[in-house]
Amino acid sequence: MEKPSYPTLEPFNFLGLDEQNYETAKAVIFPVPYSSTTCWKTGTNEGPQAIIEASRHMELYDIEEGRDASKKGIFTLPLLAPSKNSPAEVAVQIKEVILQILSDKKFPLMLGGEHSILAPNLPIDKIISTLKEKVYLTFDLDGLDPSIMPSTGTPEPGGLGWYETLKLIKEVAKKRKIIGADVVELDPIPGFSAPDFLAAKLVYKIINYII
Questions:
Q1: Cβ atoms within 10 Å, residue 191
Q2: CA distance 3 to 25
Q3: Can you give the pTM of this predicted structure?
Q4: What pLDDT shows up at residue 124?
Q5: For residue 88, what are the contacts with CB-CB under 8 A and spacing of at least 6?
Q6: Where in the chain are the domains?
Q7: Burial class (CB in 10 A: 0-12, 13-18, 19+), 60
Q8: Residue 183 is inside which H or E element, if any?
Q9: Residue predicted with more confidence, 97 or 126
């Protein structure tokens, strides 16, 4: 007896890839739907799902880099079930997963969830000069100007533009070894998917610059 056969939606993973293989993947997407310490809007726990959903509608070929990073292998882990006891326990959960991914010699990219820190607005060369040879990139979407990223917990005017952001990340990737990254603080607005798509595009840009 054969199971019923019918058209299905794309798999619910980053980029909607038909095939995933953790063993051969170069990059691992780690979604963490957590927002218990945000101070205003509290929908950032929905950010990882929104980014993944938007990514399933993106073109895989990156014109700027002239390649398709998905061919290097991208694996999406299941959504983390954050501990309800304390933020400290969630931090331990996250650390254990990230360390395992790194020990497997893969590039971890975590999708949040709430923010951690935001770098100051400094010239690119000055930013890079303060970095060690190996760095972990954390990108808070609050740092983008709300004209392009209104879907955050605390939108502030005067933020970074799209091309400024790409230039900064690309230069860091050229001059330092980025060992892992996260993109956090997306607070999806129902019925308005453009910011979700931008966040997904940023995640894929980071992967293209690094692996």
A1: 5
A2: 30
A3: 0.84
A4: 72
A5: none
A6: 21-210
A7: middle
A8: strand 177-184
A9: 97
